[in-house]
Design a protein that fits this description.
alpha/beta, about 400 residues, binds pyridoxal-5'-phosphate, Aspartate Aminotransferase, domain 2, single chain, about 40% helix, three-stranded antiparallel beta sheet, seven-stranded mixed beta sheet, 2 domains, Aspartate Aminotransferase, domain 1
């Protein structure tokens, strides 16, 4: 990455922590054996590394090690959780229950499943959080599988999983959580929160891309899934295919580091976000902050500068790595579905930017980014004659 680039897109992906890389390297080199090759020492060594990672991940979820299934990332975990659960368990009267602000991995899986089963939408409030009354209304009439995200990837809203899990149990429905944005950043306890299935990804938490995991509860209640990928009995026969040992080792190490650093990382990125927010609001009177305003995922900030074309602005500031709308759909120019769901529509949605601080972002970078952005807004507004909002 170029020296001059200021990377503020930590919700799209985080940089690989050098300590994670160090842990992974031997498994690309001398310790390359297949983790399924139990017939020799080298294979058993790879298997031991995989099992160590399973333990590191389980610890962060207060889960049992055996309940962790390795996958290629949160998208695959979500597909396996939703399709696999429905295929194995659903009766004609069951429904899928979710929200309009989920990641596309959930929304497109639901689009696929809606051919066979009803999908019922639960309302979210203006900060993107699940409306618990709406959830209770839906659950009192439908039973099946609820799928909600823990943290929204665009606006950082955090769902109350204790309350959501308790409602699911009360109405005898099951709960899948997309925790791609929260794993390693916010505390998760799958038992206290009554979570049955939970999807995570390594690259959102300073691990490598292309590896993730699905938590599948094995006890009280036992969750059964139909595997979606055939060709071997790996991962409790839920997911066929040779394991990505270096990636899994990286995910395990990333989880271990996240557990140790959660409090200090959060305090650090929260402070950076507050500096950035203050600089913006001091300079741009009409800037609007979207989402839960200081109560969301630390490090995330989503804001609208009315009248601005966010895409054009970023094209003119190539040294700034930020996002317009959802990272995973940012090649599309349509306004973000999350913003639409919380009422940020039309030109405002296209005037919206997202920043995500990481543990490697520096205060100097944050100040520089704010300065570049503010100066650009002032220049654009001068050119268009719209200067009154810039103080
Ligand atoms: C909330 C959420 N869910 C799922 C995903 C998909 O994760 P992955 O890139 O591991 O497939 C992402 C990635 O942007 C995300 O933010």
């Amino acid at each position: 990455m170029s020296e001059s680039l200021i990377y503020l897109d930590g919700n799209a992906t985080t940089p690989l922590d050098p300590l994670v890389l160090e842990e992974m390297l031997p498994y690309f080199k001398e310790d390359f054996a297949n983790a399924a090759s139990f017939s020799h020492v080298a294979g058993r060594k790879s298997d031991a590394a995989v099992e160590k990672a399973r333990g590191q991940i389980a610890k962060l979820l207060e889960a049992e090690e055996k309940d962790i299934i390795f996958t290629s990332g949160a998208t695959e975990s979500i597909n396996l959780a939703l399709k696999g659960f429905v295929e194995f368990n659903f009766l004609p009267e069951n429904a899928l229950i979710s929200t309009a602000v989920e990641h596309k991995a959930v929304l497109e899986s639901l689009d696929y499943l809606v051919e066979q089963y009803p999908v019922v939408e639960v309302e979210v409030d203006r900060t993107g959080q699940v409306n618990l009354d709406s959830l209770e209304d839906v659950l009192s009439e439908n039973s099946g599988l609820v799928s909600v995200q823990h943290v929204n990837n665009e606006i950082g809203s955090v769902n109350n999983l204790y309350a959501i899990g308790a409602l699911c149990r009360k109405y005898e429905s099951f709960l899948h959580v997309d925790a791609a944005q929260s794993f390693g950043k916010l505390p998760i306890d799958v038992n206290e929160m009554n979570i049955d299935l939970l999807s995570i990804s390594a690259h959102k938490v300073y691990g490598p891309k292309g590896v993730g995991a699905l938590y599948v509860r094995r006890r009280r209640p036992r969750i059964r899934l139909t595997k979606q990928q055939h060709g071997g009995k790996q991962e409790r026969d839920f997911r066929a295919g040779s394991l990505n040992v270096p990636g899994i080792v990286g995910l395990g190490k990333a989880a271990e580091l996240a557990g140790e650093r959660m409090v200090s990382d959060n305090a650090y990125v929260k402070n950076l976000t507050e500096i950035f927010r203050q600089l913006l609001s001091d300079a741009i009177d009409d800037v609007i902050f979207n989402g839960p305003a200081g109560k969301g995922l630390p490090g995330n900030l989503n804001f609208t500068v009315p009248g601005l074309d966010a895409r054009e602005l970023l094209c003119e500031l190539p040294m700034l790595a930020m996002s317009t709308g959802s990272a995973c759909t940012s090649e599309l120019s349509e306004p973000s579905h999350v913003l639409r769901a919380i009422g940020v529509v039309g030109d405002k949605a296209l005037a919206t930017l997202r920043v995500g601080m990481t543990r490697f972002t520096t205060e100097a970078e944050v100040r520089k980014a704010a300065e570049l952005l503010i100066n650009k807004v002032i220049n654009i507004r001068k050119k268009t004659g719209n200067v009154e909002q810039v103080s």
